[in-house]
Amino acid sequence: IIAARSVARVSxxxxxxxxxxxxxxxxxxxxxxxxNNHVIPDVTTARxxxxxxxxxxxxxxxxxxxxxxxxxxxFFLTDESLDFxxxxxxxxxxxxxxxxxxxxxxLIERSGKAVKGERVNIIHHPRGERMxxxxxxxxxxxxxxDFLHYKADTLPGSxxxxxxxxxxxxxxxxxxxxxxxxxxxxxxxxxxxxxQRNDDPDQISWIANEGTRISRIVAHVKRQNIxxxxxxxxxxxx
Length: 238
Fold this sequence. Notes:
By secondary structure, the chain is mainly beta. It has helices spanning 43-48, 214-222, 228-235; strands spanning 7-13, 19-27, 32-35, 50-53, 57-58, 61-62, 66-69, 76-79, 84-88, 121-124, 132-134, 139-144, 147-151, 162-164, 170-179, 206-213. It contains 3 helices and 16 strands. β10 and β11 form a beta hairpin. It is globular, with a radius of gyration of 18 Å.
């Protein structure tokens, strides 16, 4: 429940107005928010997007979400290969709610927070729906360079969700499914046929999910040349 307070639905803005899709993301410091690069790829998208906390159904029914704007002019850092974006959020929203009061999921620089065979837990907004939990029956299959592979129930819209280990330490940033492939690396369907680009993605034979390891994201950011003010915001994530 505490971890879920930092998780939000991302509404991806369209250049001409409106929303063109949804993802998930979460706070990693009192001001910084992380999601996937393919959810918020650039400053322009960040400026037209917004995030919603408390977009969930409680025992008393659906709650009213708490909306915040993003502030890429204060902090924006992204990387396509690791598929992450870190962006600042307004400190106080239009309703007077302070962002820091939500808490955040602190980053842990060391590796080894998740190992093969360990269970993972995910808090996300699949298909942009109200918050859902994928807990306990999810297992890490492998650690592959910069990524974790794990069995878990996710959908489009889960992109950018936090992957926690059994102790609810932040281990990875969810970003993609891993499809089954033939010897020529071609994607296969659930019927063993070749999947074509225009086919329904629901027909793909998914064998795992993939998340970017938090330790790899931290190492990447440490190599960047950022301003003193931005460095202070980043230091607050630990």
